[in-house]
């Protein structure tokens, strides 16, 4: 990420996962004041909300908002519908059941509202377009389209103050992301990735998110402190 202007703020979407932690860490390294936003969408892996609090504190966020937005009322995803099983057969082609309809569009829209309210013109999201589960809202094309929408949808935008959505992990592999966490001095053990935690509170190690995380740490030659 490019160096922030003195005093510049960024609204960083912090899920509690490894990717958003590293994206937030890069924003902190660039000199941004961190306003952390976590969406409580009534996800089945609610333990990630606790992780989000730990990550926000680790990043030195000036403020951390946990916004309730119950997407389970819509359904359509195994992360919000208890009657749908989380896919655990390995990484397969196509969009998996863990896709939450329009999730990143919804989350970035909320972040955009907070950014405009606090006078920030930068947003951060930890999307990854290389090692990802096939979600359409994790692609660079989506980010470009959202920035164009933000310019037309806000008072700041129509007055010529463009918004920048920073997606610094978009072209990174999961191994790159694991290495960045180590380089930034971030404790990856404070993050959470598993979509379907076991009754004992441990990661299932079989869902797509667990598999991608394990692949990343293995290829980076690092031990995942969450599983140590």
Write the layout of secondary structure elements.
Elements: E1 9-13, H1 18-29, E2 33-40, H2 47-58, E3 63-68, H3 103-118, E4 122-124, H4 140-153, H5 155-158, E5 164-166, H6 174-183, H7 208-220
Parallel strand pairs: 1-2, 1-4, 2-3, 4-5
Helix pairs in contact: 1-6, 6-7
The arrangement of helices and strands along the chain is EHEHEHEHHEHH
CATH topology: Rossmann fold
Main β sheet profile: 5 strands, parallel
Query: What is the helix content?
Result: 25-40%
Enzyme class: ligase
Pathway: Purine metabolism; 7-cyano-7-deazaguanine biosynthesis
Binding site for ATP: 14-24
Catalytic activity: 7-carboxy-7-carbaguanine + NH4(+) + 2 ATP = 7-cyano-7-carbaguanine + 2 AMP + 2 diphosphate + 2 H(+)
Characterise the protein shown here:
- This protein has 228 residues and is α/β, with parallel strands linked by helices.
- It has one domain: HUPs (Rossmann fold, 3-Layer(aba) Sandwich), CATH 3.40.50.
- It has 7 helices and 5 strands.
- The protein has helices spanning 18-29, 47-58, 103-118, 140-153, 155-158, 174-183, 208-220; strands spanning 9-13, 33-40, 63-68, 122-124, 164-166.
- It has a 5-stranded parallel sheet, sandwiched between helices.
- It is globular and about 50 Å long.
- Keywords: ATP-binding, Ligase, Metal-binding, Nucleotide-binding, Queuosine biosynthesis, Zinc.
- It catalyses: 7-carboxy-7-carbaguanine + NH4(+) + 2 ATP = 7-cyano-7-carbaguanine + 2 AMP + 2 diphosphate + 2 H(+).
- Pathway: Purine metabolism; 7-cyano-7-deazaguanine biosynthesis.
- Belongs to the QueC family.
């Amino acid at each position: 990420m490019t160096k922030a202007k003195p005093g510049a703020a960024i609204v960083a979407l912090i899920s509690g996962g490894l990717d958003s932690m590293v994206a937030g860490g890069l924003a902190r390294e660039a000199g941004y004041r961190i306003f952390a936003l976590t969406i409580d969408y009534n996800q089945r892996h609610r333990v990630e909300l606790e992780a989000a609090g730990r990550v926000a504190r680790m990043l030195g966020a000036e403020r951390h908002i946990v916004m309730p937005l119950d997407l389970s009322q819509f359904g359509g995803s195994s992360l919000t519908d208890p009657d749908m099983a989380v896919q655990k057969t390995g990484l397969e082609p196509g969009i998996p059941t863990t896709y939450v309809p329009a999730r990143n569009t919804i989350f970035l829209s909320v972040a955009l509202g907070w950014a405009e309210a606090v006078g920030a013109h930068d947003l951060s999201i930890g999307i990854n377009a290389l090692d990802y589960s096939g979600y359409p809202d994790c692609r660079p094309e989506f980010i470009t389209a959202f920035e164009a929408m933000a310019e037309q949808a806000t008072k700041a935008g129509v007055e010529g103050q463009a918004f920048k959505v920073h997606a610094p992990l978009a072209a990174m592999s999961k191994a790159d992301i694991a290495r960045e966490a180590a380089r930034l001095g971030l404790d990856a053990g404070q993050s959470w990735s598993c979509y379907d935690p076991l009754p004992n509170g441990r990661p299932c190690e079989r869902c797509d998110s667990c598999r991608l995380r394990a692949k990343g740490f293995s290829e980076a030659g690092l031990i995942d402190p969450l599983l140590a």
